[in-house]
Design brief:
single chain, mainly alpha
Length: 61
């Protein structure tokens, strides 16, 4: 279960304002934002699949 630790790391890095000042920090924060969205999306779709497997498969099709 690596998702909770990832969310904690992303939350910590977002709270520090120095990440958006340097170009490398901007790139890393953008990558973290994309990674957070992807992990949240996969986590939500996984939970949604567990609760509503029929409606989820209908949505994909």
């Amino acid at each position: 279960m690596s998702l909770p630790s990832n969310h904690v790391i992303v939350g910590k890095s977002f709270s520090s304002p120095g990440n958006t000042e340097s170009p490398t920090g901007r790139v890393s924060s953008e990558a973290l934002r994309i990674g957070t969205m992807l992990s949240l999306e996969s986590e939500l779709s996984f939970l949604f699949r567990l609760r509503h497997p029929l409606s989820w498969s209908a949505e994909v099709l």
